[in-house]
């Protein structure tokens, strides 16, 4: 009987399947979708399976502590606390229902416990997927990219079919939400998936020897961004393409002529993007500016505790101006940071600040690995997009965000870069080989 020392590969297929499925059915924005619950359960079970086996990969302690504090903050919002704590900290209308706590002397931080529990499951699933990817070997992390690309391709094909049939086709009955762009309910979130894919497509073209297919993929993504009609998506898609080429090509072997050809193509794309933006009317009276002003008013009165995660829609209504109440209601602040601050209070603001510090510190460590650089670009622009939208409120983009952060904070890439620095490249009968410095040939 022969025993193989080859490490198992089932964990990468398991996590890759979760990522792929989330991109297929996780594009809804409404609460209580059974598809989101399926993804969350699959992510947690898959993470448990990955954690059941030993791994040589270590977690960054700072990241682990940040996740623990984030989960603890959400749990704190659904724990009955003495009512005296809330005295003077929030308006009477937002004191919560004492009947849910069992006695009138106790109240919850969350004004809607059910919605906060949904957010807790959402956070735990994303964190579990993130940590399980951190436990993979670096080559397994690379192997998750095809699953991601398959999900993007499926969304792109759905978008091509929709835009080829009409300008505003909607698909109902296939998923528990109406599909309006790709496999997403919101065209802005579809655009977000497209532009976060651009650095990875550039990485494959520049570093994996697939320049032609990478260029075709890049052109397709940019054309889909124009067709999607998201102003932020078009602008970010243009910016992230330029930065991806500049940021990644510095260490690649692609000729300068190829880079010049790409920039000429981007110039033409800029003209089309500007025409698209100018053609769309922007409503300054009832738009994101008004949402932000109203949300800030809510933050001022609830800064200590927040209103509970998942309760933006319920709490926002008491701060709306009378002349701003229409048939359509505001479901999100269209600014992720303001919404998190409104729902989570001062502690949530502190955790966001800590994450940004950690992300900035990670930038100094990812400069040597092109895949980590690509992930850093994608995460950065998704965070920029969150200034004017709420892309991370969809399971598809939340799992993508967790995957990209796992690439950034994975300790295995640093070790591999250190090994490469101790090797030199030689030509042996036409083959490129890496040998230790100082070794005799």
UniProtKB/TrEMBL annotation:
Q: Which residues form the O-antigen ligase-related domain?
A: 217-352
Its placement in the membrane is given as:
Multi-pass membrane protein
UniProt keyword terms in alphabetical order: Membrane, Transmembrane, Transmembrane helix
Keyword Cytoplasm among record annotations: no
Can you tell me which residues the record assigns to a coiled coil? none
Cellular component, GO annotation: membrane
* TM annotation in the entry: 12-28, 34-51, 63-86, 106-131, 143-163, 183-204, 234-250, 257-275, 340-362
Q: Could you say which residues form the signal peptide?
A: none
- Which Pfam family is one of those matched by this entry? Wzy_C
Q: Where in the cell is it found?
A: Membrane
Concerning PANTHER family, the annotation shows: LIPOPOLYSACCHARIDE BIOSYNTHESIS PROTEIN PA4999-RELATED, TEICHURONIC ACID BIOSYNTHESIS PROTEIN TUAE
**Name recorded for this polypeptide:** O-antigen ligase-related domain-containing protein
């Amino acid at each position: 009987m022969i025993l193989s020392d080859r490490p198992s590969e089932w964990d990468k297929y398991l996590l890759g399947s979760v990522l792929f499925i989330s991109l297929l059915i996780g594009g809804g924005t409404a609460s209580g979708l059974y598809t989101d619950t399926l993804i969350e359960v699959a992510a947690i079970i898959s993470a448990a399976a990955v954690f059941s086996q030993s791994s040589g990969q270590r977690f960054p302690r700072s990241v682990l502590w940040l996740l623990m504090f984030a989960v603890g903050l959400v749990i704190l919002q659904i724990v009955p606390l003495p009512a005296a704590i809330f005295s003077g900290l929030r308006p009477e209308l937002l004191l919560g229902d004492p009947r849910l706590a069992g006695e009138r002397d106790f109240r919850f931080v969350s004004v809607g416990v059910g919605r906060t529990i949904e957010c807790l499951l959402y956070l735990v699933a994303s964190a579990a997927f993130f940590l399980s990817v951190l436990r993979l070997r670096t080559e397994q992390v690379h192997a998750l990219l095809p699953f991601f690309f398959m999900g993007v391709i499926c969304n792109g094909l759905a978008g091509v079919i929709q835009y080829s049939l009409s300008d505003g086709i909607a698909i109902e009955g296939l998923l528990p939400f109406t599909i309006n762009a790709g496999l997403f309910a919101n065209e802005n979130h579809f655009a977000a998936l497209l532009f976060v894919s651009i650095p990875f497509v550039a990485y494959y073209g520049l570093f994996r020897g697939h320049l032609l297919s990478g260029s075709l993929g890049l052109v397709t993504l940019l054309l889909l961004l124009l067709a999607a009609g998201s102003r932020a998506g078009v602008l970010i898609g243009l910016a992230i393409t330029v930065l991806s080429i500049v940021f990644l090509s510095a260490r690649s072997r692609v000729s300068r002529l190829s880079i010049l050809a790409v920039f000429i193509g981007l110039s033409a794309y800029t003209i089309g993007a500007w025409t698209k933006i100018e053609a769309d009317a922007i409503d300054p009276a009832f738009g994101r500016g008004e949402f932000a002003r109203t949300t800030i008013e809510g933050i001022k009165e609830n800064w200590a505790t927040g209103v509970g995660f998942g309760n933006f829609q319920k709490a926002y209504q008491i701060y709306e101006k009378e002349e701003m109440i229409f048939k359509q209601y505001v479901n999100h602040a269209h600014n992720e940071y303001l919404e998190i601050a409104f729902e989570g209070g001062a502690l949530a603001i502190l955790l966001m600040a800590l994450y940004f510090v950690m992300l900035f510190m990670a930038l100094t460590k990812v400069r040597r690995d092109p895949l980590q650089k690509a992930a850093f670009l994608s995460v950065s622009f998704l965070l920029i997009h969150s200034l004017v939208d709420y892309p991370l409120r969809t399971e598809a983009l939340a799992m993508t965000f967790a995957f990209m952060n796992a690439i950034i904070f994975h300790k295995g890439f640093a070790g591999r870069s250190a090994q490469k620095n101790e090797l030199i490249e030689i030509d042996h009968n036409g083959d490129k080989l890496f040998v230790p410095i100082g070794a005799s040939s």
